[in-house]
């Protein structure tokens, strides 16, 4: 990996849609994924195998996974909370899975109905089972820069959890600022510690843009050495079990920032804006992106 190369993870078809009041049809979800891949996205999260009563927006991920036309060189990821989710992923032909837990007890309980210790054990079982079957695992840690229930988070705890999750066999971590609580300074400092601790290939950053600071935080993270970034096209998204969670940092805002810094990103900026335009005008979702209206006006 060259120092200017970015590995960009498009999480819109999962995080972007899981908090929408409308449940999209399977056909729209498949079309969204295929348009993103056409836009040059090489890592795309297509949905989640969580309990359909907990997140009805993701209920048809099995069907979505079966319907997408796989393209060579593209990694199609799906979120799995436990062994049951892993089994569903396997049956649907998904080979890249993302496990997840929080850095804080209260959000973990709200989101997964488990204590941190129970989740550490469940993620170990799930990751080891996935790796033994030749799957690749990403591990999310949520609430790393602030928790809706517990407030401030000790970043040393994030590093400890990260060590365990990587020790189980996860390929990399994604550090989730679930409610967009982090300041650019805090995100920059945390990312510098994580990159130093785990290495550049093992640290991704997943920002939600609650305070309008996510682009500034992404810049600080880039300067701190982060080269793996998550974004959701159109800036949609949020965790339904984190009160106050806003949309993700919009992919087009993120990619625009990274290109302006001289970084290389596979995804094409204009093509991402076309997808945002399709979601807004044809699918009828409300998008929250700064760059998209500017791009349209050009
Ligand atoms: P639970 O109620 O404790 O489940 O929920 P359980 O283990 O007691 O099982 C109860 C029943 O659910 C059983 O069925 C299981 O088989 C079934 P029964 O025997 O009664 O017929 N079940 C399942 N069914 C389908 N798929 C499954 C599954 N697992 C059990 N995977 C559970 C525990 C984990 C299932 C629930 O809490 C859950 O689904 N939580 C997911 C919540 C979620 O999706 N949150 C949003 C994603 S995380 C996020 O957005 C943050 C992130 O973006 C990063 C960031 O921003 O920080 C990643
Ligand atoms: Mg998220």
Automatic annotation (TrEMBL):
Q: Name one Pfam family in it.
A: HMGL-like
**Alphabetized GO MF terms:** hydroxymethylglutaryl-CoA lyase activity; metal ion binding
Q: Does the keyword Metal-binding apply?
A: yes
Q: What SUPFAM superfamilies has UniProt attached to this entry?
A: Aldolase
The record's section on CDD domains has: DRE_TIM_HMGL (cd07938)
Transmembrane domains' residue ranges: none
Which Gene Ontology terms describe the biological processes this protein takes part in? ketone body biosynthetic process; L-leucine catabolic process
Which intervals hold domain Pyruvate carboxyltransferase? 6-273
Query: Keywords on this record?
Result: Lyase, Metal-binding
**Family recorded in the similarity comment:** Belongs to the HMG-CoA lyase family.
* UniProt cross-references to PANTHER family, sorted A to Z: HYDROXYMETHYLGLUTARYL-COA LYASE
Q: What is this protein called?
A: Hydroxymethylglutaryl-CoA lyase
């Amino acid at each position: 990996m060259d120092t200017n190369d970015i590995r960009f993870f498009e999480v819109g078809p999962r995080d972007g849609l899981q908090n929408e009041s409308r449940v999209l049809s399977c056909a729209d979800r498949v079309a969204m994924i295929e348009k993103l891949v056409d836009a040059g996205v090489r890592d795309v999260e297509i949905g989640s195998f969580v309990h359909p009563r907990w997140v009805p927006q993701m209920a048809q991920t099995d069907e979505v996974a079966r319907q997408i036309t796989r393209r060579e060189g593209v990694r199609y990821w799906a979120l799995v909370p436990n062994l049951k989710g892993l089994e569903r992923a396997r049956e649907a032909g998904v080979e890249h899975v993302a496990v997840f837990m929080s850095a804080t007890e209260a959000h973990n309980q709200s989101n997964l109905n488990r204590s941190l210790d129970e989740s550490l054990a469940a993620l170990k079982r799930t990751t080891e089972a996935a790796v033994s079957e030749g799957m690749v695992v990403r591990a999310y840690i949520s609430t790393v820069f602030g928790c809706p229930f517990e407030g401030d988070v000790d970043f040393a705890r994030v590093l400890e959890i990260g060590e365990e999750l990587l020790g189980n066999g996860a390929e990399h971590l994604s550090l989730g600022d679930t409610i967009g609580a982090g300041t650019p300074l805090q995100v920059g400092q945390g990312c510098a510690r994580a990159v130093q601790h785990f290495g550049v290939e093992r640290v991704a950053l997943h920002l939600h843009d609650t305070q309008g600071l996510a682009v500034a935080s992404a810049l600080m993270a880039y300067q701190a050495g982060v080269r793996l970034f998550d974004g959701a096209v159109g800036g949609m998204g949020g965790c339904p079990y984190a009160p106050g969670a806003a949309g993700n940092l919009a992919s087009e805002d993120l990619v625009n920032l990274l290109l302006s810094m001289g970084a290389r990103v596979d995804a094409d900026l204009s093509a991402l804006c076309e997808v945002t335009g399709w979601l807004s005008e044809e699918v009828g979702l409300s998008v929250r992106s700064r760059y998209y209206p500017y791009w349209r006006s050009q």
